[in-house]
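It would be a great kindness if you could assist me with a short task in structural biology. A protein sequence and the structure tokens that stand for its backbone fold form the material at issue. I should value your view on which stretches of the chain appear to form regular backbone elements. The record follows directly beneath this note.
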Amino acid sequence: MNRVSAEVVLDGAVGSYDKRYSYFVPDELFEKAKVGTRVTVPFGNGNIKKQGLIISLSKSEDNPKTKYILGVTDEIPILNDEMIKLCLYMKERFFCTYFDAVHTILPTGLNYRLEEFYAINEEFCTVNALDGDEKAVFDFIRENESVSGKKIKSDFENAKEILLSLKEKGAVSVCSEPIKAMGDKTAKYVRLIDEDFDTFSLTERQKEIADVIKSVGTVSVKELIYFTGVTMSVITALSKKNVIEVFEKQVFRIPYKVSKNKNNEKIVLNTEQEKAFNKLLCDMNSGKPSASLLYGVTGSGKTQVYLKLVEQAVNDKKDVIVMVPEISLTPQLIELFTSRFGNKIAVFHSNMSLGQRMDEYNRIKNGSATIAIGTRSACFAPCNNLGLIIMDEEQEHSYKSEKSPRFNAKDIAKFRANYHNCLLLLASATPSLESYSLALSDRYGLCELSTRYNNAKLPNVHIADMRKELSEGNKSNISRLLASKIEERLNDKKQVIILLNRRGHNTHISCPACGYVATCKECSVSLTYHSANKRMMCHYCGYSESIPTKCPECGNEYLSFQGAGTQKLQEELSLLFPTAKILRLDADTTLSRDSFSTSLKAFADKEYDIMIGTQMVAKGLDFPSVDLVGVIGADRAFYSDDYRGFERTFSLLTQVIGRAGRSGGNSEAVIQTQNITDSVIPLSASQDYKSFYEEEILTRKLMIYPPFCDLCMIVVSSMDKELANGTSKEILHSLIKKTDSEYNDVKLTVLGPMPAAVIKVSGKYRYRMIIKCKNNKRFRELIRETINIRKKKDLSVFVDMNPETII
């Protein structure tokens, strides 16, 4: 006899347990058990209830050993065919579990968890056999009929042991129920049940309200009360008389304000832009999957080109995803898009509440919004008919996830473009070397914009030698050249942006007598002094402590505060320009949900003269009144061990210089450095990406780094330093053994194992191994087998393919 069999993957399964399991679908659940729905299943010898997801259905012969699905959680599938295939792709490519992928795709509010509920066993009759604590918990459950284990554990000490004892004695029964992490937001609405309400015995007021409801059809209770002045008692009375029905309807928590400045003007492109647009439009309408790079100098009008493409896609009834790397870039982009497309956009980023994220997800899924805008998470927007995917500032490291699954949004975008046969457009003034290399080899299309829009001039860039400044007596973090340029702009009522990619006040506190440096107790890094809260803080784990009054090692009462962050720079500028209004934008000032957009709007409205910030002020922002940009400590990344150090420096400098002079005029930029001979700075100053690429690509080829290979990083961490070190060596030996035998066809180069640049973070020691390889299925099989070691307590091993940093 054939039965319907479901392939199910399990939530919480890791290692060798993370695989597909077969369960029969009972007849009573046949209509509900669809591919993409979550189910409750029995697992293991103890038939423990687990949550799972159906990924396929088929017919199979009856087997007495095969278990049955116990229940179906979802009324409709939460994942469609595309998203299930994406889960399988992520599992295979990114060394994650099936449900790591599921949880990443779904907004947190749509996730369920299995929660235990306890009820009294009515057949239990030996209550006197219970001790005092057991009797108290037993009575508590009996009074409440059914109580969650979470509630019991919060109200009673030793609840875990007591509940176990009650179960063993047969006093209580337990069941697991799926609980939704976040409910839909709803509002109460009313509608008529019977339009012939004249036959009902109604008061004048009740009849008046019934007439209002009849005229509008359906209306929210809130609006009805507001516009008629009726009280809730009248509505309740009409409901009791069966004249009207009161029901709940889902409403959406919109995380942005729709722009009041409607813009219906035709987008006008110059000759270069028009040429790029026509080529990209041809690709978009080809009906085939494709990827193109839109490369143009800062201010060349890349946004206008892709905005016109979006407009065309929307007119063709297609969905669009637009990604930006930083939350700070979303407010201006939202203003631009809502002015043209109204509430047809949905927003996705981490600063939104769980409810907002879930609502935006649902708006895209049900088609009420067709344009998804956001950071990395927007790549999972549940668009049903994708016509275009855009990644602005495609080179940015923030598109790569640093926790499992360690995916790059670019890989997800490529997968989705292939599935929907649509165009993936990568845009940047400083493309990644990998993307530009693919464009030059015709694997990507390439469109170039070589001049600024409306013939605006690039800023005139000055380089300030900070070694010379120091030798001439200037110990400040602001060169005399930059100070004079700032003063000129303030006098001309222009605005200034200053980049210092380091937050806090001082980078470390030390004792000049004995050499003591204040360090984190949990991480192998120095603590940064923050003047805002007068504490020393760790930027890795968040640990903080008050400033010591004297050296804890030698007792010296004089401590030296070294280095400078954005807080100290703000103090120095306030002393130099006491009348200037200064805005600081970094991770410390943008903790609240709306702080990004509020701060940027204030700067756009000219409430501030100078904006200081970390890298979040360097990219994509457009302020017409900014006439000067200053860069403090431009060469800091030169001394990084990371092979991308020069590329990141070039990109950051080029991008921040491009914030000036976007509306025309003679704008300027000042780059402060102690290394004026390095070629990266003048190349950034002249926005000469092609020369930088030609220089850097030779180094990559010589050293065999991407794009000439893939990189795989294996990281082992443990609170036991020797265990982490020993395990990393064990993995290396296993890798050598396997490549000498069954995997001798896999060619690779291994660097390490070695301690991470910051060896200890949050109390755990970290060792890493870098593998230069070709990322194909055979290589990934090798790595899976190699890391499938016997896991010890307090030991973590993870794999990161093509990480953004290898230090």
